[in-house]
Amino acid sequence: MNLRGKQKRFLRARANRMRPLFSIGKDGLSETWLTQVNDALNNRELMKVNILQNSAVEPADVREFVEANSQIQVVQTIGRTVLLFKIADQAKHRHISEEVKQI
């Protein structure tokens, strides 16, 4: 699903008070990290990831790596925080994506 502007705005509003659930540290990006994030998004659909100060990874690198290797979409990057969205595989976890489709 390609997100339109209004849909991204809705997702940013939903994530406003969220705290980052995952961090990227000195180990950087890996397939294992991406698998764990993907599994978490299958239950949540929307979450924030924080890039720690000791990491050599930049937000643009995270966007490129995540979008190239998965179905996860980067909705927004603010500083060293990245907002990720993915439609859940199971229908019982698709609460946010159903609202997004109606916008």
From TrEMBL:
- What are the alphabetically sorted keywords of the record? RNA-binding
UniProt cross-references to InterPro entries, sorted A to Z: RNA-binding_CRM, RNA-binding_domain, RNA-binding_YhbY, YhbY-like_sf
The source's domain of life comes to Bacteria
Note whether Methyltransferase occurs among the keywords. Answer: no
Q: Does the keyword Metal-binding apply?
A: no
Which terms in the Gene Ontology molecular function aspect does this entry carry?
Answer: RNA binding
Specify the CRM domain's residue ranges: 1-97
Q: Which NCBIfam families match?
A: RNA_bind_YhbY (TIGR00253)
| Name of the protein in question | Ribosome assembly RNA-binding protein YhbY
Q: Which organism is it from?
A: Nicoliella spurrieriana
* Gene this chain is encoded by: yhbY
